UniProtKB/TrEMBL annotation:
Organism of origin: Amycolatopsis albidoflavus
Domain named ABM: residues: 9-78
Name used for this protein in its record: Antibiotic biosynthesis monooxygenase family protein
Pfam families (alphabetical): ABM
UniProt xrefs under InterPro entries: ABM_dom, Dimeric_a/b-barrel, Jasmonate_Hydroxylase-like
Keywords: Monooxygenase, Oxidoreductase
Known EC number: 1.14.-.-
Any GO molecular function: monooxygenase activity
Length: 106
């Protein structure tokens, strides 16, 4: 994933899932597609292990872009459904990325 030169923002969403899928995978894929259409969206990385621990980092141009995503009606409805059904717990941190670098083996 190619990100712009900093500064930009990272929203770090760490969660613990409940047992079973109950439509989670399909809705998560849709949320990723919907987020990608939001103004200021820069990209996303997501992983989940066998125990149900997941970490998703989404990248945004600015805080207004993050607010736009957070207040998106479909995202809000999905977040509420997640609290009721899919998550045992989650936490969110919003960070400003000041410096970034990468390595890629040729």
């Amino acid at each position: 994933m190619e990100l712009p030169e900093p500064p930009y923002y990272a929203v770090i969403f760490t969660s613990r899932r409940t047992d079973g899928d109950r439509g989670y995978a399909e809705r998560a894929a849709y949320m990723a597609e919907l987020a990608a259409k939001q103004p200021g969206y820069l990209g996303m990385n997501s992983v989940r292990d066998e125990s149900g621990l997941g970490i998703t980092v989404s990248y945004w141009r600015d805080e207004d872009s993050i607010t736009g995503w957070r207040t998106n009606l479909e995202h809000t409805e999905t977040r509420n459904h997640g609290r009721a059904e899919w998550y045992r717990s989650f936490d969110v941190q919003v960070s400003r990325v000041e410096r970034a670098y990468c390595f890629e083996r040729p």
